[in-house]
Design a protein that fits this description.
Low-confidence stretches: 24-31
Structural class: alpha+beta
CATH class of one domain: Mainly Beta
Largest sheet: 8 strands, mixed
Helix content: 10-25%
Number of strands: 15
Shape: flat
Order of helices and strands: HEEEEEEEEEEEEEEEHH
Radius of gyration: 36 Å
Length: 295
């Protein structure tokens, strides 16, 4: 009997110990908080004077992208001897920051004209580290206008800069042309670079300003090596806006106001005055009924 009781006691103790250690494991694990995975995206933008690296830093929560605010992003470029520090910037309220390099002070490029820019986030107590790099090439672009056989055209040219003494024509790249409007720019055509040049017909049917001036923007967008390259120029080939030339717009205060405005105003004023007259009439009836009741 004693042996049986001793066996039960030992079994109970073992079960108790197992339960204690099993329940204690999550408690100890809480001290080691796993970092939230950060996600970085970089994009290159260039014009004829600058290289710009745009960085977005986010994390995912419930399938939503949440910006990581005020995070320190360090930029480097790769040389033949290793990484060289460029600068440090902090992300804004949208998790976005940017770094600009003057093309006159371009960092190291290899023999084929490639440069590598690294964007790095070292992480902190809450978020894990992350980094991205962009391997690109320098591009110079130009835009001009020509009229050949009464056809007005836009001419776009692009050259790849391997080094200051070596320029080669950019080829087999799509170029989109836009005209800014009140809210968004509209696409007026797409060209294809061959031997560094492409042309499209000028959109002569679109209105310009009072003198017919119109701005045209040419873009190489999200190319693998050139990123987004953009240039713009203006010319007076657009349609003149007639309402800007003379003072022939009609308003409600003019003697020749549009009839729909006149009729609408008359109707609204008539309704308002009818309500005034009805209220006066009701007050008169109430006053009269009050005198009758006193008599």
């Amino acid at each position: 009997m004693k042996t049986k009781n001793r066996f039960i006691l030992i079994t109970v103790i073992l079960i108790f110990v197992i339960m204690v250690f099993t329940s204690a494991k999550p408690i100890f694990a809480q001290d080691e908080v796993e970092s939230i995975k950060s996600r970085m995206d970089v994009a290159l933008f260039q014009n004829n004077t600058s290289i710009i690296i745009n960085t977005d830093l986010i994390y995912r929560l419930n399938r939503q992208s949440i910006p990581i605010v005020n995070a320190e992003i360090s930029y480097y470029y790769e040389s033949d001897t290793g990484e060289v520090f460029l600068q440090t910037t902090n992300t804004d309220d949208n998790g976005f920051c940017t770094m600009q390099i003057d093309k006159q002070k371009m960092p190291y490029k290899d023999d084929e004209g490639f440069f590598t820019i690294i964007s790095r986030y070292n992480g902190d107590d809450k978020f894990s580290a992350s980094e991205e790099e962009f391997v690109g090439k320098e591009l110079t672009v130009s835009i001009s206008f020509a009229e050949v056989d009464s056809v007005k055209t836009i001419v776009f040219s692009a050259e790849e800069i391997t080094n200051p003494d070596l320029k080669t024509a950019a080829n087999e790249i799509d170029v989109n042309f836009y005209v800014p409007r009140l809210i968004n720019a509209i696409n007026v055509g797409t060209g294809y670079l061959e031997e560094g040049n492409t042309t499209i017909a000028f959109p002569v049917t679109l209105p310009g300003d009072s003198a017919g001036n119109m701005e045209v923007i040419a873009k190489i967008e999200e190319d693998e090596y050139y990123g987004t390259a953009e240039i713009s120029a203006s010319i007076n080939w657009g349609k003149v806006k007639p309402w800007l030339v003379g003072d022939d717009r009609r308003g409600l205060g003019d003697t020749d106001a549009p009839l729909w405005m006149v009729y609408t105003l008359i109707t609204l004023l008539s309704v308002v005055w009818f309500h005034y007259m009805y209220i006066v009439f009701v007050l008169f009836v109430i006053k009269k009924d009050g005198k009758n009741c006193q008599e």
